[in-house]
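Appendix B. Extra example for self-study. Work through it before the problem class; the solution is given directly after the inputs so you can check yourself.
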Amino acid sequence: MPPARAAIAEGWPVLLTSVVVGITYGVVARQSGLSVVEASGSSLLVFAGAAQFAAVGLLREGAGTLEVAASVLLINLRHLLMAASLRPHFARASFVERLGLGYILTDEAFAMGIGHFRRGHGDLVYYATFGTLLWLCWNIGTLAGAIFGAGLEHPERYGIDFAITATFLAIVAVGVRHRTDLVVAVAAGIVAGALRLVGATTLAVVVAGAVAPIVVLLARDEPSDTAESPFRTR
Amino acid sequence: MSVWLAFALGGLATYATRVVPLVVTLRGSLSPSLRRYLDALPVAVIAALAGAGVAMPDGRPTGGAEIVAGAAALALARWRKNLLLAVIGGVIVAATARGVGL
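Solution. Structure tokens for the complete assembly:
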């Protein structure tokens, strides 16, 4: 099968999921006070699901610009590891091509692409096709959710305001791979919740999250030398 | 305007994490400790945001509805590995729990 067709044949469940999660993001972004243009703009500029949900959650709470940008950076730092793993497979790509291949690097594109390369294929078409389609699906989903998601009044009556928190919890539930992840997540969640209850700022919450992984530096029982993404939903 | 600045900066930072390792030759490699830290970071930051959201929804301490709804969302996500199902389930449980006065 040609690589472009293989990318669609193997990747369509992931692509479909990204449309649905994109719609969720669009709805949540509108309910958090963003306009349709801002919601779609965020998906074009950032193109990273978990970080975007975090960003709108922080904006909703009135967090500052730098707090939001720093949180997005912290959540996306993992891409450094993924890009470093992909680099040898992109050896034949030109500088400009790499700029494009980097833009479409997501957890899902990494997982699909690295799987393709590990099966012995050397082409970039598979990764590029899947990554571009994922980009399309995410942005179309965001736009649809943003357009249709603003009609609800008094969202708290329907629990809609809880959607962001529920999304974070679901991302964590899916992302926990081993006991160290679990310890880190529980520690970060409880410390952040307690800080919040005593009136701490959003920045303190994000710092609690950034400090919690130091637990993993103390735990030596679990190797994590792969750049495998914690955020894969299927 | 600050919304756009936040997304522009966040987008730029994100793009840098994706593209710098592809176009810049980095000497040496990351220490194992740093790799482990970076690996665990996203789950930790998002768990922190989740914990804060459960404890203080909309600026008021939770009355319990968010704890029940959060547990439902966690269980659904763990069970079906489906983000949307977990979010919808969590939202429905939150609305129901608030409806009965939690």
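Self-check: Chain A touches chain B through 105 residues (CB under 8 Å). If your reasoning did not lead you there, revisit section 3.
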